[in-house]
Amino acid sequence: MASGFFAILDDIGALMDDVAMASKLATRKTAGILGDDLAVNAEKATGFLASREIPVLWAITKGSFLNKLIIVPIALLLQAFFPIAIKVILILGGFYLAYEGVEKIIEYFFHKSKPKDEAAVEVIKDDAEAEKAKVKSAVLTDFILSIEIVIIALGSVLDKSLAIQILTVSVVAILATVGVYGIVALIVRMDDAGYKLIKRSNDKGFFGSLGHLLVKALPIIIKVLAVVGTIALILVAGGIFVHNIEFMHHVLPNLQSTIKEFGAGIVGGLIAIPIMMGGKKLLSLVKK
Asked: φ and ψ at 82, to 5 degrees?
């Protein structure tokens, strides 16, 4: 009986070793998309009052965990019984990401300054409502990026047993959420850490200088992340199109992959914008 128990432990240990190796490979393959996920979500998790940053980030993190909880079992089931559906979902998600990225670019270059009275109305607008809308947008974007992460992780272990597939994809999903939002939390609290260092050091010495550096660096990092996050959205979308739409393999085959993916993302966004705008107008008419 004892030997049977130790045999079970041996099997569990071997399974964990296999999962660790598979998770390492899957994490390496998803590193690029995780970097994009970080850039996109760091940009989306900023712009709130200091007292609301952590609660908002926690709300987005919980939404991200829920996303993974929904996506992982559905991805495993679809891969087993209806794999073509995964490709369709990825492409539709790519159009949404492209729409978000291209819309930001258009807004930046063609944004019209609003009249003072309209701007005043926006300032008075309910902060809780605006916060809720931004959290919802962040969770939706995370959902699409999470699909890409889970699919890539699953694709790296298709030749393994079902148990290893389930455990590996689950480990990558958890690490993706904890890692990305842990780093985002550090970024958005940089200024608070800086102010505390300045206060405790009486604005003197190394720690005082470090505090000022953290405070001054945050707005620069946020601006950089806004640009990087927009580019990341377009690149991820373009990558989805290039790798999952057959005829895209034959379009400009000698063009450098990053340029090709960025161009595909821009085109996808330009296609998606009128469709999304029409859908929003139709939805507003239905609500009325």
From this structure: -150, 65
Report which of 190, 197, 233, 224 is spatially closest to residue 53, judged by C-alpha positions: 190
Displacement of CA 239 from its chain's centroid (Å): 15
CB 192 within 8 A of CB 218: no
pLDDT at 269: 92
Structure tokens at 67: 């996303």
Of the candidates 187, 226, 233, 228, the one whose C-alpha atom is nearest the C-alpha of residue 43 is 226
Confidence (pTM): 0.70
Residues 153-172: pLDDT tens digits? 777 777 777 787 888 888 88
Q: How far apart are CA 48 and CA 60, in angstroms?
A: 13
Q: Give CA–CA dist 137/100, Å, rounded.
A: 10
* Alpha carbons 258 and 236: distance in angstroms, whole number: 10
Which amino acid, 2?
Answer: A
pLDDT in tens, 23-36: 666 666 555 566 66
Cα–Cα distance measured from residue 75 to residue 69, given in angstroms and rounded to the nearest whole number: 11
